[in-house]
Write a structure and sequence with these properties.
single chain; 228 residues; mainly alpha; 9 helices
């Protein structure tokens, strides 16, 4: 490659380093992790168990108490469809009232697309649920990737993207992380998902929303650069 091309590429990376980091952390890295997880689950027809799956579940279950049962059962409800639909409807309604129609469409595409991807992925991989103990909140659907993990990550990531221009973006980011991690951890505590299910759900949703955000950003830049 000619020297001037190398110099131009280096200059572009330096100028666009926030976008490069965002693409790596939001799309490339999650897709790589998801690919590693999905490959092993697929090859073993949904029966594969990663080395960290059962030890983490046993660790959490060994610390179960009636109080913690109630706490984590409450937390996990925040990732169930009825409450997620209600929260999503509130966000879309707020954006619509504020005449932020493009933002509303982005948010709706983020959470709806993640939900559709989750249904398809579960049918494709057909991974069975953990059966290490009798859960107090049993599930009967397939396990990989976690629907709770995908739904909460998609909603949280979309909200962070929409709120990023605001001054309180880091507070919103912190709240989003706590929300996503708490719901994911609740699925492990209840014994209805393997850690790899939750990790796979997070990666899939993050890559999906980040991809939509990149398209949205690119389109916005083109509209700004187009003369009226």
């Amino acid at each position: 490659m000619p020297a001037f091309q190398l110099g131009s590429a280096h200059t572009l990376v330096v100028k666009k380093w926030p976008q490069v980091v965002a693409l790596f952390c939001g799309i490339l890295l999650p897709l790589l992790l998801l690919g590693e997880l999905a490959e092993d689950v697929w090859e073993d027809k949904g029966e594969y168990r990663f080395a960290f799956d059962e030890p983490i579940l046993h660790f959490l279950h060994a610390r179960a108490t009636p109080h913690r049962d109630s706490l984590w059962s409450f937390v996990t409800d925040f990732g169930r469809p009825p409450l997620m639909l209600a929260m999503g409807a509130c966000v879309v309604g707020f954006l619509w009232i504020q005449k932020r129609r493009g933002d509303a469409a982005f948010f709706l595409a983020s959470v709806t697309g993640a939900a559709i991807l989750n249904v398809v992925a579960k049918l494709v991989f057909g991974r069975t649920r953990p059966d290490l103990w009798i859960s107090i909140a049993p599930e009967t659907s397939f396990s990989f990737p976690s629907g709770h993990a995908m739904a909460t990550m998609a909603m949280a990531a979309a909200l962070v993207v929409l709120a990023w221009p605001a001054r309180g973006r880091f507070a919103i980011l912190a709240g989003a992380i706590v929300f996503v991690v708490a719901v994911g951890l609740s699925r492990l505590y209840l014994g209805v998902h393997y850690p790899s299910d939750v990790l796979g759900g997070w990666c899939a949703a993050l890559a999906w929303v980040s991809g939509l955000a990149a398209i949205r950003s690119r389109r916005s830049q083109r509209e700004k650069s187009t003369p009226e």
